[in-house]
Design a protein that fits this description.
Layout: H1 8-33, H2 35-68, E1 69-70, E2 73-74, H3 76-107
Antiparallel strand pairs: 1-2
């Protein structure tokens, strides 16, 4: 049966390797929780959010533009539909205002 005893050099090498691993681990931990690292991480997240939001706005504007204008030109049918909806909303608000005014007069 072979002896499993280690030499002092092997023990020293193991201790040095463990020490190095702990140093690297602690340095990594410190770099993650350091206020500057936290600030940089937060800045990166904000920049990414702003970039994503900006792209979403550009996509929405482009999609809306394509709804009203395509390669054939202005889509008057879509513009007419939106105009009719706007007129309907204004009329509904006018009717609601008139009815509420009438109701106030009756209840006085």
């Amino acid at each position: 049966m072979a002896s499993r005893e280690r030499t002092p050099e092997q023990i020293r090498a193991d201790i040095a390797a463990s020490r190095h691993a702990m140093t690297v681990g602690i340095a990594g931990l410190v770099s993650e929780v350091h206020p500057t690292a936290i600030k940089n991480h937060a800045e990166d997240e904000v920049k990414k959010t702003v970039k994503d939001t900006k792209q979403a706005i550009y996509d929405t504007v482009d999609e809306t533009r394509r709804y009203f204008v395509d390669e054939a030109g202005v889509r008057w049918d879509h513009i007419g539909t939106i105009a009719l909806i706007a007129v309907g909303v204004v009329a509904a608000v006018g009717v609601a205002t008139g009815v509420s005014g009438l109701f106030r007069k009756v209840t006085k």
